């Protein structure tokens, strides 16, 4: 007998094993394909609604006045100028007389504004709409296509600092409230409008903190808070033709970690093998090499699961079968920085300093590492990870400042449906999905006074619009403002 015609026993076992693996793979792919073919859209069906009567041109005029007041949160809080904020308050009083006659209004933390509008049903939990009146500074007005505080209209847009972030939302909320009052509509639920004046101070602001404290002290337990978030994205999701609005259930946390090396100095003619700069550089290289692992768990997985049924092509097969493809998907997303940030805690070495003179050994070298923390990771865990990566007792690793990921809100809650419905009533072509907001906003301060905290901006943005936030040529499409007003109107009228 020759081995060519009759397989040896071990070969037979291997063959049988391979066939088993192939069969299992076939079954898994079969299940995946069936899943993809039977998957259904999770989007809410909506009907036409009666829009609030608003003169859109006049509303744009009021927003333009708001943009022309430079309510700047300066880089250094000591440079704060209160005058524009006082003008801004006066503009609101002039622009929205019914709101100021019929709602209770309080000035909190000097320049923030909190309004209370008694709802028809005293037993229903109130809702909180927030926005901020301050804007980031403009470093070089000359590079803008239109001056940042002129509110010029051109090419179908209103140009200016604050149009997107966040005066557009603030003014749209008040337009909706004013229109409801004019039409004699009382909101079913009590509505709080909380407008902070220092959101852009990057964590040192007090406006939202103090308003949340006041609400807490008064026993307010709101059904939800809606704050700014990602806009309605156009073309940002692959394999989806429609715009996608991602309602932020939470936001990324953050941690800034300091690495310090301190050594005895001396003349550079007789140096040790490594100076403080060399030791620090090696530590920084290790921190960059040992990135935190990626994971699809958390709100981003919910985004994919909700958008999956709306996709086409091979990506639909992947997104509707994350039970099978999550590891492949995670690896694919980690391959590019823009998508990697949605599946892992990011690491960015942002500052390095050390040494004073070419012929003097440095006694001290210092680096700062900035992390944006993904759902599932913690500040404490990130510090431990960096300490492990550095793995050198000569490098001191210290947390400078850290915020954990705020509580993750529920995408199944009725309040989520309220917001999703309002958005689709106004923009029926838009897909709505839960997700994680990748920036930070005032929303996190309200976690203690509301069951759910959501983040969403109700205007459309493309990939090209993303750098306009805090950048140059911030602008809002004129034809979208009416939709924003109606969106907030639908929310305040929701049961
Ligand atoms: Zn903002």
UniProtKB/TrEMBL annotation:
It is an enzyme of class 3 (hydrolase). PANTHER family: N-FATTY-ACYL-AMINO ACID SYNTHASE/HYDROLASE PM20D1, N-FATTY-ACYL-AMINO ACID SYNTHASE_HYDROLASE PM20D1. InterPro entries: Bact_exopeptidase_dim_dom (IPR036264), Pept_M20A (IPR047177), Peptidase_M20 (IPR002933), Peptidase_M20_dimer (IPR011650). Belongs to the peptidase M20A family. It comes from the Bacteria. Residues 250-393 form the Peptidase M20 dimerisation domain. Gene3D superfamilies: 1.10.150.900, 3.30.70.360, Zn peptidases. GO terms for molecular function: metal ion binding; peptidase activity; succinyl-diaminopimelate desuccinylase activity. Transmembrane segments: none annotated. The lineage of its organism: Bacteria, Pseudomonadati, Myxococcota, Polyangia, Nannocystales. It comes from Enhygromyxa salina. The keyword Magnesium does not apply. It holds the Pfam family Peptidase_M20. GO terms for biological process: amide biosynthetic process; amide catabolic process; amino acid metabolic process; proteolysis. This is Putative succinyl-diaminopimelate desuccinylase. Its EC number is 3.5.1.18. Keywords: Hydrolase, Metal-binding, Protease, Zinc.
